[in-house]
Amino acid sequence: MKLWDKGFETDKNVEAFTVGKDYLLDMKLVPYDCKASIAHAEALCEKNLLSESEKSSLVSALKEIIALHKEGKFRINASDEDCHTAIENYLVKKCGDAGKKIHLGRSRNDQVMAALRLYEKEELSKIIKLVSLWKETAKKKSSEWSSIEMPGYTHMQRAMPSTAGTWIGSFAESAEDNLFLLNAALKLIDKNPLGSAAGFGVPVFDINGKTTASKLGFSSWFKNPLQVQLSRGKYESVIAEALSQVMFDINKFATDVVLFSTKEFGFVNLCDKLTTGSSIMPQKKNPDVAELLRAKYHAVIGEQFKIKSMTANLMSGYNRDLQLTKEPVMNMFDAASESVDAAILLLNGITINENACKQAMSPGIYATEEAYKLVKNGVPFRDAYKIVAEKFS
Ligand code: ARG
């Protein structure tokens, strides 16, 4: 039964259209919504709006839902609309009147935000761990490969001498920047949305963001209840930016691997386990992992664009449009974590073909050094440049 049931039937097509995929996506939010509901029930009890036994029965039912969900046994039906409704219906069934009391002082508008932000905090922490591992792996490879000479390219033309260590080390250093951005996003979103209710606070009762902030592990809360709704999509696009920066590096790493593993370059060998074959050409060993990693960046920035675009032009306050930003947020996290995982796997599965690298170190690569040596002997740089350029004309 819907929370807003007032005794008339909604058109079935309208029902299906408005629910969309939400009842499926919300499966990810169930444990977070339960966690927020436990904190809310405790707060109601502290304010004498629930009795001690009502609170206990709600808390144990909510814990039951978390356990059922873990076992894959908690269901949200399309007719429930979302996890908030499915959970409340369960509570009413299990706890009777106490279940009917839990929605006092909140709205699904702050409820969904609380669950989302708890989910996002956990996902960000997971990705921070993965990016740290990526950074450490790249750092290790960078020192292992520090003396393997490799041409450096500008305009995709051989430019100056470099090393395989410098190549991979650039990704380690950039990962530090990405960790800074991810941590900044985590810090930014660490505010309790609960207590803002529909977007205008809770009248009559003394309930606000402070009430449940520390119970939920938020380091602060929204002072202005309307800003909670303003932040939906705004915070998510900051998260998206941090994730797309992670994906940007992975895209470049993948592009390099695809190119460097061609017969034409041959700088990088891919271990067989990381390649796939062709259904027609028996000789093929394809770098599909790298190719898909390359494309995932575009998938993530596509989701970022959806979030930014769907949340613009909306009047202040909750608008149902916001529901459609849930899927892009979840897609982005899924794509980013599976990509960082795969990028680490790929990096661990490549070796550098020192011979091929050496062969590519053609004399032109040392031209700048040659000019600098002339400068050391007193020739002005522009003259030295011209002298050396003659040799390569
Ligand atoms: N599924 C909704 C969302 O994600 C939950 C909030 C619904 N609020 C409402 N006023 N209909 O936005």
Describe the structure.
With about 400 residues, the chain is mostly helical. The chain has three domains: about 10-100, Fumarase C, Chain B, domain 1; about 115-200 and about 220-360, Fumarase C, Chain A, domain 2 (Up-down Bundle), CATH 1.20.200.10; about 360-393, no CATH class. The chain is about 60% helix and about 5% strand. The chain has helices at about 10-20, 20-25, 30-45, 50-70, 85-95, 95-100, 110-145, 165-190, 210-215, 225-230, 235-260, 290-310, 325-350, 355-360, 365-375, 380-390; strands spanning about 150-155, 155-165, 190, 220, 270, 350. The strands form three sheets. Strands 1-2 form a two-stranded antiparallel sheet. Strand 3, helix 9 (about 210-215) and strand 4 (about 220) form a beta-alpha-beta unit. The chain is elongated and about 90 Å long. The relative contact order is 0.10. Bound molecules: arginine. Arginine (ARG) binds near residues 22, 108, 112 and 318.
